[in-house]
Amino acid sequence: MFEDNPREYPTNHVFSFYMWCSSNYITEDYVYIRLIQQTITGVDTKWYVDQGKAIHSTFVTLAKYFLSYF
Fold first, then answer.
1. Distance between start and end Cα atoms, the chain
2. DSSP characters for 6-64?
3. Most distant CA pair in the chain, distance
4. 3, 12, 49, 70: which has the highest count of C-beta atoms within 10 A?
């Protein structure tokens, strides 16, 4: 879970999430985009909802926005 704590690194969260998906044979971007919402909490959830569904068609673009925000 990503909670945006001072000792938490957004890059580590994205990398760990990507590795978990890969190790579970998840390869479709739409699945990555839907699953990552389960790994963020609190104020960060608002960030995800504010992104809208049509903005990101790939996990790479979502990850870039995530990393630029956090």
1. 14
2. TT--HHHHHHHHHHHHHHTT---HHHHHHHGGGGB-THHHHHHHHH-SSS-SSHHHHHH
3. 32
4. 70
Burial of 51 (0-12, 13-18, 19+ CB in 10 A): middle
- Please tell me the total count of domains within the chain: 1
Burial of 24 (0-12, 13-18, 19+ CB in 10 A): exposed
Range of the domain at 30: 10-69
- Residues 6 or more apart in contact with residue 18 via CB below 8 angstroms: 32, 59, 63
Please indicate, yes or no, if residue 53 is contained in any of the structural domains. Answer: yes
